[in-house]
Write a structure and sequence with these properties.
The structure holds two protein chains of two kinds. By secondary structure, chain A is an alpha/beta fold. Chain A is built from eight helices and seven strands; from the N terminus they run βαααβαβαβαβββαα. Chain B is of the alpha/beta class. Chains A and B meet through helix 5 and helix 8 of A and helix 2, helix 3 and helix 5 of B.
């Protein structure tokens, strides 16, 4: 997949409570979650984000709760990809499961400023800073996880396996 | 001979049908239990339907608990609990507890004997790691993993390396189990155990009750940990006696098991402490936090809502009154704990001290209801997270502490030790 968008850059330990505050978890409606994405960290995020835009953050992105509503809120808000130095493990699983692209690439994070225009190729893991021309390569996914992504997510992969069994 | 393994590795190997596993290995495992709550189950149920599944993998191995926004806080929450209830009835789920029988999931499941040592458990709630205190490998996942688990009874795992924490010696100065885990998180940071299992051992852990141990395992996730495991000993066996429904398997670490890191902690270095906003790792001794005035104290949650926690808070509040500038909200974690509070006279202590004494719910811990903070307000809380906006307005502040410190602070009006009163 190829994405191009404007970068929203944040610091370390961006937790799931700021990605989508629990006060909005009385519904899992995607539009409702998107309207409140990142609200407690960046109150104007939901109004500024455009389809394809990219979130860039430091270490431990998505720490805290297991709420799948967090990657869903970002994806529904239009975010195409999150690039971070590292991800909290439940967020990492959830993002793969719901089809939000995530890339671990400390060098890219250090070299990309807020508002930069960035292109991402998720197949090769190539990240290009379109403002400077600099390119970076993210850690590739382990084959097993790449297989889940290729299948279109965990639901699709499981459905295919269940169908093969019956 | 299989390679020497940690408890986490042994449990994952056994459930993957393998003699041995290594850190980094990806395995598919059979699950003993799949758990979800009123916030995460609705999405998991959607996933279950999307898969084309018609029956859960085992109706005795699914746990559904209405606790986060239950008793229903508003119409939308009522719809979510209804969706879970309807599913539980349709699938004849054994372990569904209706409001009035339920409580906070991570206090409820061990109390009811549903989780046993050696189990492999996934729960669509990050604090599922609590059951590590019982010698189980239990970990939080999202709703999609839970939905697939409901349908298939299976999940994939990357075998985590294990960090061993050896805590020896006697706790002093009124330090409690909560102080041990806040101290550890302060030491290694909120991603100090990222992608890793934590194993807690040593004479200090051995001296703790099951309630104290569960408080520690509960917060493994606040260090990024995938599990927070303790070995089964006589204290655990006595606690399980007459409680658990199933035969269980005790897994003990091999003496020559490989650990990513071994961290030794002297219990004498652990002081009553408070995690200041906005990360659980921002720990400070209570003695350096006394200038902080508070508007609210919350005593409860899956971290500290068990009977021992209620007793610790009541001991401080007995014969005293909550400061006139403070609201003190006490929430026993389950119906059984609530009833025990009545039997032991603790409910009287709380009510006489002018506390709010509530039916079990996760409520304020995640900023749901039953104690939301206004702009700029400060709360001392026995819960597990103090992120921005966690308990209410984004400018409000949460300070994490033990039940005794939260109770003393409620009386003093500022962060305090019981000995300050």
């Amino acid at each position: 997949m190829h994405f191009e968008g404007t970068v929203f850059r944040y610091g370390r330990d961006v937790d799931t409570d700021v990605i989508i505050p629990a006060r909005y978890l009385n519904s899992s409606d995607h539009a409702h979650l998107a309207a409140h994405a990142m609200e407690d960290l960046d109150p104007t995020f939901a109004t500024r984000v455009q389809p394809g835009d990219i979130v860039v953050a430091e270490e431990n992105f998505g720490c805290g709760s297991s709420r799948e509503h967090a990657p869903v809120a970002l994806k529904a808000a239009g975010v195409s990809c999150v690039i971070a130095k590292s991800f909290a493990r439940i967020f990492y699983r959830n993002a793969i499961n719901v089809g939000l692209a995530i890339l671990e690439c400390p060098e890219a994070v250090d070299a990309i400023a807020d508002g930069a225009k960035v292109a991402v190729d998720t197949e090769t893991g190539t990240i290009t800073n379109l403002d400077t021309g600099a390119t970076f390569t993210a850690e590739p996914f382990p084959p097993f996880i790449a297989e889940i992504i290729e299948a279109g997510g965990l639901v699709e992969r499981t459905r295919a396996k269940l169908a093969a069994r019956s | 001979m299989p390679r020497p393994m940690t408890v986490a590795e042994k449990i994952l190997a056994a459930h993957a049908g393998l003699d041995e596993v290594r850190p980094g290995q990806l395995v598919e495992c059979d699950l003993d239990l799949v758990l979800a709550n009123d916030i995460t189950a609705p999405i998991a149920i959607d996933v279950f339907r999307e898969l084309g599944a018609t029956e859960v993998f085992d109706r005795d191995r699914v746990c559904l608990v209405p606790d986060h926004y239950a008793p229903n806080k508003d119409i939308k929450s009522a719809e979510q609990t209804k969706k879970m209830r309807d599913f539980a009835r349709e699938q004849k789920i054994t372990h569904y507890w209706e409001q009035g029988c339920a409580g906070i999931e991570h206090a409820l499941l061990p109390e009811q004997g549903v989780v046993v040592p050696g189990d492999l458990v996934i729960g669509a709630d990050s604090h599922t790691c609590t059951y590590g205190a019982l010698g189980a490998f239990s970990t939080g996942v999202g709703s999609t993993d839970a939905g697939v688990g409901l349908a298939t009874g299976r999940a994939w795992f990357k075998v985590p390396p294990t960090i061993k924490f050896v805590i020896d010696g006697e706790l002093t100065d009124g330090a409690a189990a909560k102080d041990i885990i806040l101290h550890i998180i302060g030491l290694i940071g909120v991603d100090g155990a990222l992608y890793q299992a934590m194993e807690f051992t040593g004479s200090t852990i051995a001296s703790l009750s099951m309630e104290g141990r569960m408080c520690i395992s509960n917060m493994a996730i606040e260090a990024g940990g995938k599990a927070g495991i303790m070995e089964v000993d006589d204290v655990a066996r006595a606690w399980l006696e007459g409680r658990c429904e199933r035969e269980y398997v005790e897994y003990h670490a091999d003496v020559d098991a490989e650990y990513a890191q071994v961290i030794h902690i002297d219990a004498a270095d652990i002081k009553p402490c408070v995690s200041w906003p906005h990360l659980p790792s921002n720990t400070h001794p209570v003695t350096e936090s006394r200038d902080i005035t508070i508007d609210q104290a919350v005593i409860g949650s899956c971290t500290n809502g068990r009977i021992e926690d209620m007793r610790a808070a009541a001991e401080v509040l007995r014969g005293r009154k909550v400061n006139e500038n403070v609201r003190c909200i006490v929430i026993p974690a389950t119906q059984a704990v609530f009833k025990q509070c009545m039997t032991e006279g603790l409910a009287d202590v709380f009510i006489d001290a002018n506390c709010v004494f509530s039916t079990p719910t996760c409520g304020p811990c995640l900023g749901g209801y039953m104690g939301i903070l206004a702009a700029g307000e400060r709360c001392v809380s026995t819960t597990n997270r103090n992120f921005v906006g966690r308990m209410g307005d984004p400018t409000s502040e949460v300070y994490l502490a033990s039940p005794a410190v939260a109770a003393a602070s409620a009386v003093a009006g500022h962060i305090a030790l019981p000995s300050d009163l």
